[in-house]
Here is the input.
Amino acid sequence: MKKTLLSAVKPTGTVHIGNYFGAMRQFVDFQDEYNPFIFIANYHALTSVSDGTLLKKLTLDVAMDYLAIGLDPKKTTLFLQSDVPEVTELAWIFNTLTTMPYLSRAHAFKDAEAKNKEVNVGLFDYPILMAADILIYGADVIPVGLDQKQHIEIARDTAKKFNHTFGETFKIPEPMILDEVKMVMGTDGRKMSKSYGNVIPLFGSDEEIRKAIMGIPTDSKGVDEPKDTATCKVFAFHELLNAKNLPEVRKRYLEGGLGYKESKDILYENMRAFIAPMRERREEIARNPELVLKILHEGGVVARAKAQKKMEEVRVKTGLTLN
Here is the structure.
C-alpha cells in the first residue's frame, strides 16, 4: 500500500512562490508515489481572518491554486479542513494531554509574544489542531518547509503521549523537507511570508511580478565587478527557478559583466515563463467554480470517512464511548 502524504495551506492571502517551492510543488511531484491528503486549513485561518465573506473567497482561491499547479483530484484527496469536524474533537482530546508550558515553546507563539502581540487562544493552540490534522488520517509523511518542522515534532510528541496513555493508536509521522529548498527567502532576505510583504505571488500579473523583483535590494557593485552568488538575494531566486540560463548567469556573476538591473530583467523573464502556464490553467479553472466546489465536497466525504473511523477507536480507548 502507498504511504499517506498530508499537508495544507492556510487561506489567509495570496499564494506565493515560497508556498509553491516550499511545499506545494511536492504535492504534484509525489501524487503518484503516495496517497496524498491535501486540505485547505480554514479552521486555522480563523486565528487571523475575521471576515466570513473574505474567508470564503480566499478558501476557494486556494482550491483553484492547488488545481492549477497540477493537483489531480483522481489521485489526491483535496478537501476543506472544516468538512471534517472530527479534527476539532480530537484536538480537544489532545489538549487534555498537553501542558501550557510545552505549547508556550512553539515558535509562532514565542514570536508573537516577543512582539507584544495579544495572542488569541486559537493561535496558542494552533500546533495541537495541526497535530490532530496530521494524526487523524494516519499520515506517514508531511511535506513542509524547514520553519514548520517544529509542528511535526509536536504532532509526533502528541501521538507518542496518547499512545503511551491510552494504547497504540496513532502513527508517528515524518517531515519531508527537500534539502535544496528547505526555506524560501523573500525579496528582502527574510523568510518569504505574506505578513512581511516580501512575496512574489504565484499567480501574480506580469506587473506584480516585475515590481516584486525590481524591489529586491542589492549592494552597490558595478556592472563589471564580480558578485557573490552566495549572498546576492537576486541570485538566490535564479537558483530557485533553476532556468536553462542559470550556468551562464552564475558565470557572469563570478567573472563580472552582469549588472543587477540586467540580472533582475533575466530573473523576471524566467519567472514570467515559469508562472505563465499555471496562471493560464488558473484562469480556466476560475471560470467553473461549481466544479471546484464539487471536487472539495467529494474530497471531504473521503477524508471524513477516514477520520470518523479513527475517532471511533479514539472514543473507545479514552472511555468516551459507553457501549
